[in-house]
Amino acid sequence: MVHENRINNGDCQGRECGGNLEEAADLAAGAEAGLAGYREAVEWITGLVSFGIKPGLKRMERLMDMLDHPERRLKFIHVAGTNGKGSTCAFLTKALLANGYDVGTFTSPYIEKYTNRIQYNGLDIPETELLKLCRRLKPLVEEIAGTELESPTMFEVSTALALMYYGTVTYPDYVVWETGLGGRLDSTNIVTPVVCVITNVGHDHMEILGDSLSKVAAEKAGIIKSGVPVVTACDQQEVLEVIRAKAAELQSPLYELGRQFSYEVRSVELNRQMIHWTGPFCRYESLTVGLNGPHQLKNASVAMMVLEVLRQYQALVVEEEHLYAGFAEARWPGRLEVVSENPRILLDGAHNPEGAESLARALEGPAYARRKLHLMMGMISTKNHTGYLEHILPIADTVIFTEPDFHKKLDAAKLAELAMPLASRITPQPAIFIEPDWKKALERLTALTSPGDLAVVSGTLYLISDVRTWILYHTDSEKGW
User: To pair with 381 at 20 to 30 A between CA atoms, which of 99, 170, 276, 397?
Assistant: First the structure.
C-alpha cells in the first residue's frame, strides 16, 4: 500500500544494509531523553497536564521553527465547534478513505488509549513510532521550558507529535484536524487549512472562551483564514453574525446549513438514518448515515458540504458509490453507542446543555423504546451542570451520580445536590442514588436494568472512557485528555 511504502522508504534513509545504526541511534536518543519505552513516553506527555491550559500560539510557533515546519507540507480540514467535532471528523475520514485518499485524523480526548488521538488511515499511531517522535521532541520541549515561554502544555505536545507524524513520517493527502478548545488561541490553529469547519457554538468552556455565545463564537471563528472556505451548521443569530463578519473580513466563502446547503430526513432506524442532501453544486438522494441521533444528520450534512467544497476548490475526486459507503460505515465511540445488549447499555459523551438536549431528543426516537430509563452520570467541575441536568433529568426514571477517575472531577454528592431542586419539580420524580466509585455505580446500574429497560451512561468523556473500556475489555483505560 502507498502508506506502507512511504514509511518503509523513510526507514531506509540513514540505515546501512546489514547494520544497526538506526537502532543504536534510537537507543542513544532514548537514554538521553529518559524515555525507555512507550509507557514512559505517554507518562511524560500526560504528566504535562500539570502545566494546565495556556491559550496562545507562541510555544507552538517556536516548536514548529525547531522542527522545520512539518505543518507546511500538509492539507488540513480544520474542525472547530462545541459539539459534533469528533463525529464530523469521523464522517470526513471514512468518506475520504473510501475514495482512496490517505488520511490523518487528529482528535481529542481519546476514549481508550493515548494513541487513539493520532490516526493514519484509521489506525492508531504505532507505539514504536510515538516513542521515536517523543524522544526527538522531549529535548525541544525542555529547551522551551527554560525560556520566558515556559513549558509547552500536554495538548501542545500532542499537537506537535501529530504534526511530526503526518509531516515527517506518513504524509497523508488530507489531515482531518480537530481543535482542542476554542480555536483562535488553540494550538491546532498553527496550521493554514484548505477548509474550515465550525459545527456549532454552545455553552461550554465559557470560563475560558467568554461569558456569551458571541464571545465563544469569536474564539471558534478564529480558525478562519484569509480566502479559505468555511462550512458551518450554527443557527443562532448572534453566532452567525460573528462568523459572517469574520468570513467577510477575510474574504472567505461561507457555506451555512439552511442557506447554501440543506438536508431532508427520509427514514430513521438504529445505526441507519437516511437523508436527501442538497448543496450549491449537486444533490445526493438517499444518503445513509451510520451514526445515531438527529444531531448526527447535521454533522453528516456539514461533512458532505466540506467534501463538495474540496471538490470545487481542491479538485477532490469522489466516486458516489464510495462516498455513500463511507457515510454508512462511519462510527464514533462513546456517542449513542450500545456497548451491551443484556442488559442494554448505551454510552453517550454529552457533557454540556446542548449535548444533553441532543441526547434527550435522540432517546425519544423509536430506536430507544424502553420500559424505564436508568441514567448514570459523572462530570468534571468546570461544566454547566444545571443546564445539562435541566435537559436530562426529565427523561430518567433513575439517576446514579458518580465520579470519573480524573483530577478535575466534580463530587457526586455536589452534582446530586444541584439535581435535587430540579428533580423535585418532575412528575414522577426520578429516584436518585449517589455512588462516587464509578465501578460500583456501574454494578448498580446493571442490577437496576431489567429486560425492556435502557441504561445510559453519560457526562464527561473521561467517565465514558472508563466505562467503555471496562465493559468491552474489562481493563482500565489510559488516563489523559
Answer: 397
pLDDT tens for 382-418 read: 757 899 999 999 999 999 999 998 878 999 999 999 9
179 contact partners, CB below 8 Å, separation of at least 6: 78, 79, 80, 81, 85, 186, 188, 189, 220, 223
Give the Cα separation of 369 and 152 in Å (integer): 48
CA distance 27 to 43: 18
Going by DSSP bridges, is the β-strand pair 76-80/195-198 parallel, antiparallel, or unpaired?
parallel
Cα separation values, 69 from 64, 162, 164, Å: 5, 12, 9
Angular region, 459: left φ>0, alpha ψ -120 to 50, beta rest: left
Q: What is the pTM of this model?
A: 0.90
Instruction: Tell me the three cell numbers of residue 44.
Output: 511524560
How confident is the model at residue 204, as a pLDDT? 65
Q: What is the mean pLDDT of residues 297-320?
A: 97
Report in angstroms the alpha-carbon separations of 301 from 92, 199, 233, 237, 434: 11, 10, 9, 20, 40
Task: Name the residue with higher pLDDT: 108 or 103.
Answer: 103
Mean pLDDT of 375-379: 96
Give the distance, in angstroms, between the CA of residue 387 and the centroid of all CA atoms in the same chain. Answer: 22
In 214-261, beta strands by DSSP E? 230-232, 254-256
Residue 110 has pLDDT above 90, yes or no: no
Residue 95: count of CB within 10 angstroms of its CB = 25
